[in-house]
Amino acid sequence: MKTNFVPRVNQLDSIQLDSEIQNLLRQQIQNILQCLPPGLLSHLQPEINFVLNSALWNFSLPKSYATFGQQMLSIAYEKDQLPSAKLGLHYLLTTLLPYIKESCQFRLTSWSLLQRVLSVVENALVLFNLLNFFKFLKSGKQPSLVDCLLRINHRSLDGAKRRTIGYSYMTRELVWAGFMELLGFTIPFINYHSLKRKLRNALRLDPYQQPVERVELTSESKCAYCNERVILPHHMGCSHVFCYYCLKGNQLADEGFECNVCDYRSDSFKKVLVL
Fold first, then answer.
1. How many CA atoms lie within 13 A of 183 on its CB side?
2. Are 242 and 224 in contact (CB under 8 A)?
3. Cα–Cα distance measured from residue 10 to residue 156, given in angstroms and rounded to the nearest whole number
4. What is the pLDDT of residues 76-103, one digit of tens each?
5. Pairing, β 154-156 against β 75-77
6. Would the CA dihedral through 105, 110, 112, 113 be positive or negative?
7. Fewer CB within 10 Å, N- or C-terminus of the chain?
8. Taking Cα atoms as reference points, which of 57, 127, 131 lies closest to residue 92?
């Protein structure tokens, strides 16, 4: 069953799909060209894009009267509205003219007048596309400027049935969002430093180190917590040296803080004196 009714969302999605197909193939070509010496084909980038776009057009419009994006959504152009002359104009507007513009912008950068003209034309096309989009929202026909210029419309190949929309993805997103909100609410109430200390003590079999009377500090000494050069060296009674902020911050966060090297525990700490 064929019908002239085509939902607006299908027509817009077909344009988006065509763009994604081009980007996907272009990325594959770039991955292949990476195996070649750098800069070998960089000056041929407009031609590479032109060959790619020409191939996509040649294997879609002349054979099926539909782009690959339209074929994926079971829509096509009206066959009687696309004679050979209009097919040639469609190729000119969608493939050849973009290649000429890209080639001029790529190779004729020193022609300031030409670049200004191209910029004006490009801005005008953006404006015309916007006006055509508003017209499309009202009429539901000819979503692109090329379709409007050539006066070609879409037809549906599978009847005038509505698209079925699945909400499984939205459901997963809602569940994940709820889980993240729960974590954001509960995590601040968990004393991470205390849990880390208890877990470390449960897995460590080394005996506790007895307190020492003197702590040695050299130019190579590093903080036992951050393993960086000691800033404002302090100790808590064992032989290991800490930065003041590392030691003070951990003791404020965890009342039972222990040396993460020897498990020595003390509620106070002292400044390391350099003799």
1. 6
2. yes
3. 10
4. 888 888 888 888 999 999 999 898 888 8
5. antiparallel
6. negative
7. C
8. 57
Give the pLDDT confidence of 119-174 residue by residue, as tens digits. 899 999 999 999 999 999 888 888 988 988 988 888 888 765 555 666 777 788 88
Contacts by 89-97, CB closer than 8 A, 24 or more apart:
89/150, 90/57, 90/61, 90/146, 90/150, 90/152, 91/54, 91/57, 91/61, 93/146, 93/149, 93/150, 94/53, 94/57, 94/146, 95/50, 95/53, 95/54, 95/57, 96/50
| Cα 128–Cα 157–Cα 148 angle in degrees, nearest 5 | 15
Q: Which long-range contacts (CB under 8 A, 24 or more apart) does 102-111 make?
A: 102/46, 102/49, 102/50, 103/46, 103/47, 106/45, 106/46, 107/46
Backbone angles phi, psi at 234, to 5 degrees: -140, 160
